[in-house]
Design a protein that fits this description.
CATH topology of the largest domain: 2-enoyl-CoA Hydratase, Chain A, domain 1
Shape: globular
Distance between the termini: 93 Å
CATH class of the largest domain: Alpha Beta
CATH architecture of the largest domain: Alpha-Beta Complex
CATH superfamily of the largest domain: 2-enoyl-CoA Hydratase, Chain A, domain 1
Strand content: 15-25%
Number of helices: 19
Oligomer: single chain
Helix content: 25-40%
Radius of gyration: 27 Å
């Protein structure tokens, strides 16, 4: 009788169980409250909620994600296209904030801060030797417009420490990395993401290059993981004729929303080439797909990532947010370029390794596409869905001796850190040097090539760089140029031997 009585007192009746099964939201809230009030040990319920949300979203798709407060603010700034701060590029060198270079025209440059300077204190807060997390460090350097921060600077070149007041200001985060002329008629624009300011940056760059005689455009979307779909649509509108379909979306209820070009395009007739690679995703694929399906231009490079899902963001009061997939998008021909995620998130994002293994990165014939997913462009050309945009002209990854990973190393932050350390050791050889003299110096010497080979070895990277010496020297020279003369010089150097750009310039 005691067992029966205990069962009746401590468990819900069948009717209550049915109600509880339907009350999913209440169940989750009750569980959190139960743990918070009754669990034997102290528990951070916020972390439990975060874990719960992450687990729920993990069951949906790889792009429905939870963004904690510490990451959301920086994400928001990146997509907004600016922030309020002191205006420096830096990295942590031996647990100290080391200035790579102050942003031209920014607060720090105006205050006299130079490349190689170390920031020891922000007001009275010590910034060195503490292993501060990025969000804590940034919070000391950011603030309100026109607010002041007193920095304690150590200048290695003179061996002195001094204080300087810096007035914070709005610092743009550029999404157009470069806008240069490749020759007298061909313009090149590199876009790294689709943020709020991207279209304005792009249009300003394009109009400037048109004034220089550009009637052909190379739009570089390599390594561009996407962003706001609306910015990609605005850019596509500049290339397409009025009423040409750019993209359409479809939600779970079957509602279709179509986006068409207007009559306001500023580059509807010139030759157009779009560069893509395995890391071009989302909004980049929308733009490339619209150009390809409307037969407006030529897509050059390697198969894109394959993200055809549209997210909507919901913010929480604690500063965190959830991005939830709410629709799929389709290119004008009707193809979804979303690759399968049925095998889980790890396999989904590990698709890059499969492309290495099956040879896709250096042979178009190795691209795995479903023959059943055939679609036709406006002029009747066959294109494929189900896994990224397949380029019209394939260009393998840059490597002369099968060392594909070396190309990625040379375009990574590793090179930037190495170059900074070399300059930090001795800036005198580059003091007051002209750009022409700099190029001649870098061409004649193997000093930095040999140092970089040792640097990789010391950091556990075993790769024979000697087999690709010209490529390695080119990227080293370009990174030195970036840190000494600015971003555009970096692209001037790398674009000369860029395989995709060279392929474009061969076209009639």
């Amino acid at each position: 009788m005691g067992v029966v009585l205990g069962w009746l007192l401590n468990f819900p009746s069948p009717m209550n169980r049915i109600t509880a099964q339907n009350d999913y939201r209440g169940k989750l809230n009750k569980l959190i409250d139960f743990i918070e009030n009754e669990y034997v040990d102290d528990v951070d319920t916020d972390s439990i909620v975060d874990l719960t949300v992450n687990n729920i979203l993990a069951e949906l798709d790889p792009h429905s994600v939870y963004i904690p407060p510490s990451e959301q603010s920086s994400e928001a700034e990146l997509m907004k296209g600016d922030f309020v701060g002191i205006g420096v590029n830096f990295y942590m060198h031996n647990d100290t904030v080391a200035i790579i270079n102050p942003i031209k025209g920014g607060p720090s440059e105006k205050a006299g801060i130079k490349s190689g300077d170390r920031i020891l204190f922000a007001d009275n807060t010590k910034l060195y030797g503490r292993k501060l997390p990025s969000d804590s460090l940034f919070s000391k350097l950011k603030g309100e417009v026109d607010s002041k921060v007193r920095l304690t600077i150590f200048r290695k070149s003179i061996g002195k420490t001094f204080k300087v007041d810096v007035t914070r200001d709005v610092i743009p985060i550029k999404s157009v990395d470069a806008a240069v002329m490749l020759n007298s008629q061909t313009a090149y624009i590199k876009v790294n993401r689709f943020a709020e300011t991207t279209y304005d940056e792009f249009r300003e760059a394009l109009e400037s290059l048109q004034k220089k005689g550009a009637n052909s455009l190379v739009l570089d979307l390599r390594e561009n993981g996407g962003g706001y779909m609306e910015r990609a649509i605005e850019m596509a509108d500049d290339f397409l004729k009025e009423k040409e379909l750019i993209v359409f979306t479809k939600n779970r209820k079957g509602r279709v929303n179509k986006m068409f070009a207007t009559d306001e395009g500023i580059f509807e007739k010139g030759k157009l080439f779009i560069l893509i690679d395995e890391n071009s995703a989302s909004a980049s694929e929308i733009l490339a797909g619209a150009v390809q399906d409307n037969d407006r231009g030529i897509i050059v490079g390697r198969r894109s990532f394959g993200k055809g899902l549209v997210q909507r963001e919901m913010d929480f009061n604690d500063g965190s947010a959830v991005r939830l997939t709410v629709a799929r998008y389709y290119t004008p021909s009707g193809r979804s370029i979303q690759k399968s995620y049925s095998e889980g998130t790890e396999q989904y994002f590990g698709d890059f390794e499969k492309r290495f293994e099956n040879g896709e990165l250096y042979s178009k014939d190795s691209i795995k596409i479903a023959d059943t997913l055939k679609f036709k462009t406006k002029k009747g050309r066959i294109v494929y869905g189900g896994g990224g945009i397949v380029p019209d002209i394939f260009v393998p990854i840059e490597s002369e001796h099968g060392q594909e990973s070396l190309a990625y190393i040379m375009q990574s932050g590793v090179v930037g850190h190495f170059v900074f350390e070399q300059l930090d050791k001795n800036r005198k050889p580059f003091s007051g040097i002209s750009y022409t003299a700099f190029l001649q110096k870098m061409d004649k010497t193997d000093e930095y090539f040999n140092a970089f080979r040792e640097y990789l070895s010391e950091n556990g990277v075993q790769i024979n760089v000697a087999k690709n010496k010209p490529m390695v020297k080119r990227y080293l020279t370009a990174e030195f140029a970036r840190q000494l003369f600015g971003d555009e010089k970096y692209f001037e150097i790398t674009l000369r031997e860029d395989p995709m750009v060279k392929e474009v310039l061969k076209q009639p």
